[in-house]
């Protein structure tokens, strides 16, 4: 008996990808399509609501297929965290950065993926729990959730917000979608690159590391390897190793920042002056200015807080990987 698949398709998905999906489905035999059900999102947060409903009703008897970008996947993985409902992610968004960790840099062929869904292998992966607090220590539930790929604070978050605004202004331009993040990154390093925060990390070894500076350019918390349309802050990150790979960047002068951003994009920044790499299990990032609220993003979605606590949650999500890929 073939397995049943329920597709959650983002209303914000790239229209070109949606048309590609329609063409691919037309080439799938009718008997196979009978095992597919399609649900389309209608409002912000709807992908998570649909995933929660599916998991509660069917448990492990169906597989959820997330068709959207990293924001849609974030909603779905928060709904499916610590459940037994398996998840397959197919890239339909702008950056599709988690897809690069799952499938590699080559965009998967949709028809081949649809025909081979039964060969995808379930495997438990980690999530990063992010909890945000205000200056008084109150927990900010609306800015606290699980992250499946990368969370960050600092310059990269400002760049991501600018790139998102650029794409929203011209949503149908493939050129804008492909170039928004690099263009905004170059503009970002020409402005104020620093943010007022310090951090304390619990390392894999059990030791504690306290940052020596109260001003930094950025810090990224990585479960996956890529974010920001292909930037690679953690080339050695794995989704299932019980570790959060952390990359922090000092407040560097403009002359060094230009060369550093090119290395940071290609994953060649390790060992460079001003770059710090850590293997961690948890940590706290704190604003060093009482009047300054940190702006961060998890899986491309914005969040805010005066103090951010994070920790790895091992084996938190049942993710399915292509059968020809070892994870």
Which value, in Å, is the CA radius of gyration?
20 Å
Helix content: 25-40%
CATH architecture of the largest domain: Sandwich
Largest sheet: 11 strands, antiparallel
Per the principal axes of the C-alpha atoms, what is the gross shape?
globular
What is CATH's topology name of the largest domain? Answer: Tumour Suppressor Smad4
Give the H and E element order. EHHEHEHEHHEEEHHEEEEHEEEE
Distance between the termini: 26 Å
- State the secondary-structure class: alpha+beta
Low-confidence stretches: none
Q: Helix count?
A: 9
Beta-strand proportion = 25-35%
Number of strands: 15
What is the top-level CATH class of the largest domain?
Mainly Beta
Domain module tally: 2
Q: What does the average pLDDT come to? A: 88
What does this structure look like?
- It is a single chain.
- The chain is α+β, with helices and mostly antiparallel strands and 327 residues long.
- The protein has 2 domains: 4-119, Rossmann fold (3-Layer(aba) Sandwich); 127-314, Tumour Suppressor Smad4 (Sandwich), CATH 2.60.200.
- The chain is 30% helix and 32% strand.
- It has 9 helices and 15 strands.
- The chain has helices at residues 15-26, 30-33, 46-58, 70-80, 97-103, 110-115, 155-169, 174-189, 254-266, and strands at 4-9, 36-40, 62-68, 87-91, 121-133, 145-147, 150-154, 197-203, 208-210, 216-222, 244-250, 275-287, 294-298, 301-305, 307-321.
- The strands form 2 sheets. Strands 5, 6, 7, 8, 9, 10, 11, 12, 13, 14 and 15 form an 11-stranded antiparallel beta sheet that branches. The chain has a 4-stranded parallel beta sheet with strand order 2-1-3-4, with helices on one face.
- Helix 4 links the parallel strand 3 (62-68) and strand 4 (87-91).
- Helix 3 (46-58) packs parallel to helix 4 (70-80) and helix 7 (155-169) runs antiparallel to helix 8.
- It is globular, with a radius of gyration of 20 Å.
- The mean pLDDT is 88.
């Amino acid at each position: 008996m073939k397995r049943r698949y329920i597709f959650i398709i983002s209303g914000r998905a790239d229209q070109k990808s949606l048309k590609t999906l329609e063409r691919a489905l037309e080439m799938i035999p009718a008997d196979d399509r009978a095992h597919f059900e399609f649900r389309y999102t209608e409002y912000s947060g709807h992908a998570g609501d649909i995933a929660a409903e599916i998991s509660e009703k069917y448990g492990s008897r169906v597989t959820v297929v997330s068709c959207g970008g990293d924001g849609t996947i974030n909603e779905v993985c928060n709904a499916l965290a610590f459940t037994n409902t398996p998840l397959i992610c197919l890239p339909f968004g702008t950056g599709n950065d988690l897809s690069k960790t799952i499938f590699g840099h080559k965009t998967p062929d949709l028809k081949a993926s649809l025909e081979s869904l039964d060969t995808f292998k379930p495997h438990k992966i980690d999530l990063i729990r992010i909890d945000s607090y205000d200056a008084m220590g109150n927990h900010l539930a609306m800015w606290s959730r699980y992250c499946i790929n990368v969370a960050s604070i600092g310059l990269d978050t400002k760049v991501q917000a600018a790139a998102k605004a650029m794409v929203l202004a011209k949503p149908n331009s493939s050129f804008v979608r492909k170039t928004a993040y690099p263009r905004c990154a170059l503009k970002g390093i020409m402005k104020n690159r620093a943010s007022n925060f310090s951090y304390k990390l619990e390392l894999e070894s059990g030791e504690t590391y306290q940052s020596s500076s109260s001003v930094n350019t950025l810090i990224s918390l990585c479960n996956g390897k890529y974010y920001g349309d292909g930037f690679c802050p953690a080339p050695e990150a794995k989704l299932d190793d019980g570790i959060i790979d952390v990359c922090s960047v000092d407040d560097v002068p403009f002359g060094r920042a230009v060369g550093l951003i090119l290395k940071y994009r290609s994953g060649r920044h390790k060992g460079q002056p001003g770059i710090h790499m850590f293997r961690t299990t948890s940590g706290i990032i704190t604003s060093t200015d009482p009047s300054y609220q940190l702006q961060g993003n998890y899986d491309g979605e914005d969040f805010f807080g005066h103090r951010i606590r994070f920790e790895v949650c091992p084996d938190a999500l049942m993710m399915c990987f292509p059968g020809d890929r070892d994870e």
